[in-house]
Write a structure and sequence with these properties.
It contains five helices and 25 strands. By secondary structure, it is an alpha+beta fold. Strand 16 and strand 17 form a beta hairpin.
Length: about 375
């Protein structure tokens, strides 16, 4: 009986977990997300105090439609600007004595490249230097190599400015593309980055297989990351402008087709999934999910994913207090029940003892009565 009482007491004192399973959720990309992140998804909102907003350094921007020309995409590659290519030659026939540079290395203007010896008897060696800064390519010689005056020994490419050569197969658009038009280049090497460019030439001459023309755009290669041979695409905007709703690219989180932004409305933040279209500079076209006048978070939104809502925090606190009160009440009730059971046990034992003593006295009286008769 006492074991049964103890089992019941354990059940009463054990808090029940209303959330079955592992208690976790997963984000748009299948990764594990925290409970705080769940509070921002599925239409739920996060309410933050002014102090919390300041700590997260949250910034927002109101989105509105703006006139944008349709985007046309051409595929192509990065090439060196032939106007910024230096071929290193010697004004005589000679032999390469020593090479000071390696392919791919960067050289400064007037830096020594190669030392050569003229084949004419009595001539002194000559050191060939770079006339411009750039990267060494097409190193065609080695020590001991005999060369002619017209032979290119090596090449120095100034890659501070490069070209993107786009393939133009639809020649009907050739007359719509104008020089000096702004454009954007995206490369496979840097998939999340766009490079501003400017159209320099439109060559509609049919050549190649299949035949087509080419568009050449000029790019300033500030960090030197763009190298000849990299493939990518160029985005050209031309034609009649249309009103398009765009969102700053920095406001977008997630990846692939599971992208989302945070909206601010009356001090609360809600995670909203969006479907995006073309890229327009630092902005992305919004196809679904947002409306004009929406206020999107452009800074602090990554940290916002893991922020705990003030209302949720208070609710959890109240729930914990209620659980503690229930736990205390259950504990006191169990203690009271235990005392009642203890008192009942004592009464039962006392009753049993009194009955036993009464039976013993009756037996003793009966024995005395028989002795008296005898």
């Amino acid at each position: 009986m006492k074991k049964m009482y103890l089992a019941v007491a354990c059940l009463l004192l054990t808090p029940l977990n209303a959330n079955a399973g592992d208690g976790h959720a997963h984000g748009p990309d299948g990764s594990h997300i925290s409970n705080a992140f769940q509070s921002a998804g599925g239409g739920k909102v996060i309410s933050l105090s002014a102090e919390a907003e300041e700590n997260l350094e949250i910034k927002t921007e109101t989105i509105t439609p703006r006139p944008i020309a349709p985007i046309h995409t051409l595929y192509g590659r990065i090439t060196a600007d032939p106007r910024r290519v230096e071929q290193i030659t010697a004004p005589f026939s000679g032999k390469v004595e020593k090479i000071f540079v390696l392919p791919g290395s960067f050289v400064a203007r007037n830096e020594e490249l190669v030392r050569v010896i003229p084949l004419q008897v009595g001539s002194t060696p000559l050191v060939l230097k770079a006339k411009q800064g750039g990267y060494v390519t097409d190193l065609n010689v080695s020590p001991g190599h005999i060369f002619e005056p017209t032979e290119n020994l090596l090449t120095v490419n100034d890659l501070e400015v490069v070209l993107f050569e786009g393939d133009l197969f639809d020649l009907s658009n050739a007359n719509k593309i104008k020089t000096s038009h702004s454009c954007e280049v995206h490369t496979k090497r840097f998939p999340g980055k766009h490079f501003a460019c400017q159209i320099e030439t439109v060559d509609a001459t049919l050549k190649g297989n299949p035949p087509g023309g080419h568009v050449h755009a000029r790019l300033v290669n500030q960090d030197g990351g763009l190298k000849p041979g990299m493939t990518g695409e160029i985005h050209l905007a031309f034609g009649a402008q249309q009103l398009k709703l765009t969102v700053p690219e920095v406001a977008v989180l997630g990846k692939f087709e599971k992208t989302f932004v945070y909206l601010k409305n009356n001090g609360a933040y809600e995670r909203v999934f969006v479907r995006l279209g073309e890229s327009y500079g630092d902005d992305m076209e919004v196809l679904e999910g947002l409306s004009p006048g929406d206020m999107v978070v452009t800074r602090g939104h990554y940290q916002l994913q893991y922020a705990q809502s003030d209302t949720e925090h208070t609710g959890h606190h109240h729930e914990a207090s209620h659980h503690e009160a229930t736990h205390t009440h259950s504990h006191e009730d169990e203690h009271s029940h235990a005392e009642e059971r203890s008192s009942a046990d004592e009464d039962t034992d006392q009753h049993s003892h009194d009955s036993h003593r009464h039976s013993h006295d009756e037996a003793h009286d009966h024995h005395d009565h028989e002795d008296h008769q005898h």
